[in-house]
Amino acid sequence: MKAIAVEPGAGEPVIVERPRPEPASGEALVRTLRVGVDGTDHEVIAGHHGNVPDGDDRLVLGHEAVGVVEDANGTNLTEGQYVVPTVRRPPNGTNEYFERGEPDMAPDGKYLERGIVGAHGFMSEYFTSPAEYLVPISEELAPLGFLVEPISISEKAIEHAVASRSAFEWEPESAIVLGNGSLGLVTLAMFEHVLDIDRTYCLGRRDRPDPTLDIIDELGSTYVDSRETPVSEIPAAYEPIDLVYEATGYAKHAVETVDALAPNGVGVLLGVPEPWEFEIDGGKLHRELVLHNKALLGTVNSHRGHFESAIDSLDQLPGWFTDDLVTGVYGLDEFQAAFERDDEIVKTAVEFASI
Amino acid sequence: MKAIAVEPGAGEPVIVERPRPEPASGEALVRTLRVGVDGTDHEVIAGHHGNVPDGDDRLVLGHEAVGVVEDANGTNLTEGQYVVPTVRRPPNGTNEYFERGEPDMAPDGKYLERGIVGAHGFMSEYFTSPAEYLVPISEELAPLGFLVEPISISEKAIEHAVASRSAFEWEPESAIVLGNGSLGLVTLAMFEHVLDIDRTYCLGRRDRPDPTLDIIDELGSTYVDSRETPVSEIPAAYEPIDLVYEATGYAKHAVETVDALAPNGVGVLLGVPEPWEFEIDGGKLHRELVLHNKALLGTVNSHRGHFESAIDSLDQLPGWFTDDLVTGVYGLDEFQAAFERDDEIVKTAVEFASI
């Protein structure tokens, strides 16, 4: 079967021939339909993140997949059922984080990530997976099933943000997404259409006309140009923000999030930056957090429950939004197009089989 | 009646004569027994924090009080009942934060603080208060009732920290208190005797022999000397910490808390620093928060529910601990002694009437 893989240092993915996998006991065989491409894939391709499985020379890419069960292999799945796989797997047998259904909370060394950290991804015509890591999705939603994984990341982030404010009455009326990439836009759409937050904002650094700014407008959200309004000046230029969602990987935004927050607000961080030293007013940061009961949380990955919530959220997003968000779905013969990047491209996927 | 007040700029408290207050409808008249002194009082005396009530030239000090109801004045209290007053009051009539019992979450301008911000404190022979802000305490605990307010601050901080970790299974096995002042020591005792955390640490910068280090030892906790081990190096020198409680007001400790945390850990900040610019590795801070699901929260003040929990916690603290913690209780004739500070003094109170 064909797979899309990357060799460390090669800098671009290629199609390779791999044997079709045989499901072990407890595993199902899944025929891959579509696999999304995101910033993490580009980090892996560039060699900045992730690693090849032990004993292999290439990593099969892909962690945002949807497929159809080809061989249930005695599991509780049924053939023909559409499924979305979760990403983390236990490295050697299981461990307590996987046993309690919280692989997203496993520390380094206690997980592999398919398509990212030490395990092959889903960009192959078939893949196998323990049935417990395959989340059923309806036929209707299956064509967009590759959006479930990114949405699940935000489900977790929002769950943790809300939990952090659960010791008191907190109803966010304003929210901002820092970053107008596909994850940022999906989260903005969730703020508008799933969480019903009154006033939403999205920070970017693009000029009009731009397809992501069009989506921000159409969502009824306000575009904040970071070249004109630094994150710390958002309260003065717009309003203090109850919920800040950072998806830029830009460390100054993360630190300035504390200034952007309204009293009792929470900033949830998802970007993964490189080391970067700079000067801050640490006293002001500390004082702001304390005197205004503010919170700053990081979150990474997601668990099966978040995938299930993500499927519900996907169902609530308007059709025009997902139409505008997904700017390209490419067959294996033109898979390179799915990895291209420019300002006209928002979200892409590779199609391994038609639905 | 006599009261202990401070004039802005004077730099030291004096005894003043004030009319004994008359309780308004819904208020009780309380005879003051003891009032604790803490770092906030010293900030107020130094003129760094707080302000005098409108139309007055002095602020009566004191926010950590215990008293006995002298005149219930038709409220649901009874004469002779011991009570601890909460600190925040609504500035003009009430507002939504007070209505829902969460004055601790009120933003600037939506609260006064007795003895600190725009309202007279409890360091007078009598005070009045709406009955809803007076929390009953047993006769047995009343002599230590001035510890209820500081304990309530930690009750809130711990409640918020635990809430922030409530979206997953989290049982802290290690905790550190940054700061060996009286609030730090009380919190350390709560970690040991109320929360039963396996391994506790306390950070300070003192040499032995020292009464606070003796208390740390006696609690079975490990003393960490910040002159030898910066906060960021605690994981290497000891272990990564699940729960960091910062009570120093030292901004570098607040920022380095993220390094001290174990994966999925939470740092709760309570210190109130001045502005202070310094260099940080913002990329590392951001990345650590995200990839290890870490959280950093600020909390300030506390509400009636925290006072009620604090009374339960006070009841669980061992007698030797409170004996060693309270190094002096001084009558009005020697009240200045309660405001002295040196390494032999841990916690003091002024006694207005014997119990």
Coarse morphology of chain A: globular
Helix coverage percent of chain A: 25-40%
Major sheet size, sense and barrel closure of chain A: 7 strands, mixed
- Per DSSP, what share of the residues of chain A sits in E-state strands of 2 or more residues? 25-35%
Q: Please report the total strand number of chain A as a whole number.
A: 20
Mean pLDDT of chain A: 97
Give the helix tally of chain A.
10
Please give the oligomerization state of what you see. Answer: homodimer
Secondary-structure element order of chain A, as H and E? EEEHEEEEHEEEEHEHEHEHEHEEHEHHEE
Q: How many angstroms separate the termini of chain A?
A: 18 Å
**Class by alpha and beta content of chain A:** alpha/beta
| Largest interface: pair, residues per side | A-B, 56 and 56 residues
| Low-pLDDT residue spans of chain A | none
Gyration radius of chain A (Cα, Å) is: 20 Å
Features of this protein?
homodimer; 6-stranded parallel sheet; alpha/beta; 20 strands; 7-stranded mixed sheet; 355 residues
Question: Can you describe this structure?
Answer:
2 copies of one chain form a homodimer. In chain A, helix 5 links the parallel strand 13 and strand 14 (222-225). The mean pLDDT of chain A is 97. Helix content of chain A is 26%, strand content 28%. The first copy, chain A, is an alpha/beta fold and 355 residues long. In chain A, strands 3, 5, 6, 10, 11, 19 and 20 form a 7-stranded mixed sheet that branches. In chain A, strands 14-13-12-15-16-18 form a 6-stranded parallel sheet, with helices on both faces. The interface between A and B is large, with 56 and 56 residues.
